[in-house]
Structures are given as structure tokens and as C-alpha cells.
């Protein structure tokens, strides 16, 4: 079977640039899909940990696709989040008169009797405890790792990104077809 088209310059132009147009559409669809996956993951992780959505979003790393690298990545490190981010409350500065620090995780609240809130010279504020008999050294306290919570919701995020890729790819291919000069 053979099909020949004669005189349709718009279709000829579309087919000539098809690989380039398909790549552009794929990249845009991938980037939109990974952004949708990130939105879902931020909502799930923030709901699970009790953190602010903005803090969770900042902790995530997003690598968009390009025409040279048709791969989009979303991830989060295994580094634990400072306890201060979990709504830590305590006398600041305690000057030795504090009654400890309370914090709130999604599973419930907690209190550490000998902890205190302090600002470091770098400007970082955290919850600390003394680890020696003298004033120093002190060590900072941390909550859970976002990486472990991320792994829990990863299948949902992947499924959301796949759904959005299909939807966006169809749209982007239609957009590229409409951009052909002389096409109607």
C-alpha cells in the first residue's frame, strides 16, 4: 500500500520538522508532569510530617528535562530535618531557667526537658542539648528524614507524573501541530 500526498505544504513542513517538534513537546510535557508530581509529593509529605509545604518544597531537588537530556528527576535527601522546624517552642533565650523544649510531629507532641533553643553565629536557630558535663559541647536535635517519608509516597508521585505526562504530551503535540505555518 502506498500513499502519496501532493501539494500539501503545511503537512510537508510538519513532517519535515517532526523530530524537533516532538522533542520540544516531550520536554515540555515531562517538565509539567514532574512539577505535578512534585506538588502531590509536597502535599503528602507536609501532611505526614506536619511541616510547612514551603519547607518541604525547599528540601526537594528538581531537575528538569532538556532537549539533550530527556529525563526529569525529583528527589529529596536523607538528611534529617532540624527539630526546630517541627514547631519547637521553649523559652528563648533560656539562660538556664527554661523548662525544656516542646515540639509537634504529626504523630503527636513531645517535650525534651533538658533541651534549649539557641542561635548559632551562622544565624541558624535550632534545638540543642548539652552532651558533656560542662557547658560545651552541645549537639543539635533532629526530627525524621524527609527521604524516608518521600519513599513512602513515591508510587503515588510516579503515578501522578505518568498521568500528567500523557495529558500534557497530547496537548503539546497539538500545540506543535498548530504552530505549522499555513496549517488550519
Low-pLDDT sequence parts:
1-8
As a whole number of angstroms, the C-alpha radius of gyration is 26 Å
- Main sheet makeup: 3 strands, antiparallel
Mean pLDDT: 84
Number of domains: 2
Binned strand content = 15-25%
Structural class call reads alpha+beta
- Write down the secondary-structure element order: HHHEEEEEEEEEH
- Outline: elongated
Give the tally of β-strands: 9
Please count the helical segments.
4
Strand order of the largest sheet: 6-7-8
- Measured distance between first and last alpha carbons: 28 Å
Helix content: 40-55%
Task: Please describe what this structure looks like.
It is a single chain. With 184 residues, the protein is an alpha+beta fold. The chain has two domains: 9-80 and 145-178, no CATH class; 82-144, no CATH class. It is built from four helices and nine strands; from the N terminus they run H-H-H-E-E-E-E-E-E-E-E-E-H. The chain has helices spanning 9-16, 18-49, 53-59, 146-178, and strands at residues 60-63, 73-76, 80-82, 101-105, 108-112, 116-119, 125-130, 138-140, 142-145. A three-stranded antiparallel β-sheet has the order 6-7-8, with no helix packed on it. A two-stranded antiparallel ribbon has the order 1-2. A two-stranded antiparallel ribbon has the order 3-9. Helix 2 (18-49) packs across helix 3 and helix 2 packs antiparallel against helix 4. The two termini are 28 Å apart.
Record keyword descriptors for this entry:
elongated; 2 domains; 184 residues; 4 helices
